[in-house]
Amino acid sequence: MQLLQYVIQQTNLAEKSVSNTLSLLNEDATIPFISRYRKEMTGNLDEVQIGEIVKIKETFEALEKRKIAILKALEEQKVLTAQLTQKVKSAKDSITLEDIYLPYKKKRKTKAESARLQGLEPLAKMIMSQRVNDLEYTASKYTSNEVDTIEDALEGARFIIAEWINERTDIRNNIRYQLERFGTISSKVIKKEIDNEKAQKFKDYFDWGESLNRIPSHRLLAILRAEKEGFIRIKIEIDTERTLQKMESRIIRTNNECTTQIQWAIQDAFKRLLFPSLSNEALSIAKEKADQSAIAVFAKNLQQLLLGAPLGEKRVLAIDPGFRSGCKIVCLNEQGELKHNETVFPHAPQNQSLDAIKKISSLAEAHKIEAIAIGNGTASRETEQLIKKIQFKNAIDVFVVSEAGASIYSASKIARDEFPNYDVTVRGAVSIGRRLQDPLAELVKIDAKSIGVGQYQHDVDQTKLKKSLDTVVESCVNIVGVNINTASESLLSYVSGIGPKLATNIVNYRNKNGSFSSRNEIKKVPRLGGKAFEQAAGFLRVKNAKNPLDDSGVHPESYFLVDKIAKDLKTNVKDIIGNKEILKQINVNNYVSETNGLPTLKYIINELEKPGLDPRAKAKVFSFDKNIKTINDLRIGQLLPGIVNNITNFGCFVDIGIKESGLIHVSNLSDSFVKDVNTIVTLQQQIVVKVLEVDVVRKRIQLELVK
């Protein structure tokens, strides 16, 4: 099967859309570029659809690569026939392909192989013919120096038969069906671990069982982690008797002396070969689905976090709070540059609150601070309350900012390169302040796994997770667009067509030659050729450029079209940008061509209406309940303000201003059934919750979303 047909079958998309998308991908075009600037070629496919084509393409290519390897191995064994070649080439998935290859796969020394070397394969064939009536006499002919007794001969023959049964695709597929439809997974605590403190978080799974095909992804990943850590044992089961009967009905055709031998071989094949292998396969498939689900949750959360509301270009005083070690304070200008740093000790044991208030007040005035960012870690609530006691000369908004991953950033090479003369505490405070100014620009510097908005992210396939999260980061960066004159290397590296090396070259060019004055000047960056410019230009913004389109999402390849529109309107490009009245007069049908269809033209008009519009909302001030400082302050029935800080398939976690986040189970999100938690809440959303249950010992809080 050809790639094109394979993708069409998997997606049900139009042939032209798939064919053109595959061509663009083969030319190293990125997903954001294709979806934004090649709408006519793809039939207006969005990023999700193009991303799905990319995944299917990768699956197909991996399958084809495996087919080539198998055909080569079969040829080397001199067993390759035209029929076998066709079977291999026509396999549509890896399970089918591996089943075809199984009889020819080189095996370590098995019981069946030993029996063959003892010359027992002819006896096995006779038993399987089911026509032998005097089996004891027949088997006696196969005794030898290596085969002592008739029973040894029959046992060896059964080992060979068991291997044949194991290699039968119909038998394997039937057991797969039984596992898929009726398989169960159960877990039991390992007795010596029952009182282990670390095992208590898995207490729910000390005696657990449910259908394998219905177990939620988060529960399967939790059970697998508990097994990995040595607290429980996992068992996969199906109705063995029923499965053996089905196997017998497929194999046994008569009722004579051979029947019992075949029945024993069937039981052996099932217990020793088939079930261990296929139950592991079923668990592996379930794990793969759980991984996909968990990765999808993480990706969706990450996207919401990266597209979180920025404060914008405001002067910020950021505080990384602490008790004994003090509160690290930094002052940042509008561009996030560090202007001042020091440490104050307002809390126990020093209790120098008056000195801290004076210092923060004077810094706010000296640096014309417009907002204060407080990290949400240790001493956050106490620091927030201290700040709110200060009578600033000018109104200053106070924000509590997530510290998740800040310590990872502060110890990273990126942070060391940015602030070589400052320690990790200062870098961490800078990161908190910059997160308030622009979450996306700051969070791209941190390994996405460390941001803490997923479920069991360390238990899923790490390669798939990284690929998915990188795609999300790239998508978010390109949705927002990047100011080429202020963006960090980290941010630039995610721009379509750029990557880390070109990002470094752009920053080096900028440092040497000053700010870029136009998009065209980007071509002067060393090693940034025509292809990279084509992919990147539409996502890079140049503020106050001579051509106002350089600060928009209109691609340079379409500038001529905007010039023509302006000329037809007897005005200039500058005057039509943002002018809704003039833009309403444009009849886009007059400008349709083979390369610029209605989707592209509508996109251009939208960009002219709001050029370079940041799609993100603006940051809003939020305050936790000042009376709630620890889990011991919670009471059932309380209504509390909170911020959604993690979303899972089973509900969402909410920061209510204490160390422990509370859980709103999916059943407590709405009066009606909730299929997708994201349809009810979004990450960083400010909500009101009701306390349903407080377990101080296990540090668990159950909440309900207040309608």
Helix share, percent: 40-55%
The order of strands across the largest sheet is 6-5-4-7-8
Main sheet summary:
5 strands, mixed
**Structural class, from secondary structure content?**
alpha/beta
Molecular shape: globular
Strand content: 5-15%
What is the number of helices? 29
Low-confidence parts: none
Give the N-to-C terminal Cα separation. Answer: 53 Å
From the alpha carbons, calculate the radius of gyration and give it in angstroms. 33 Å
Number of strands: 15
**What value does the average pLDDT take?**
94
Structural description of this entry:
This protein has 707 residues and is α/β, with parallel strands linked by helices. The protein is 47% helix and 12% strand. The chain has 29 helices and 15 strands. Strand 14 and strand 15 form a beta hairpin. Helix 2 (15-26) packs across helix 5, helix 12 runs antiparallel to helix 14 and helix 12 (169-182) crosses helix 15. The two termini are 53 Å apart. The relative contact order is 0.07. The model has no long low-confidence stretch (mean pLDDT 94).
List keywords for this structure.
alpha/beta, five-stranded mixed sheet, 29 helices, 47% helix, globular
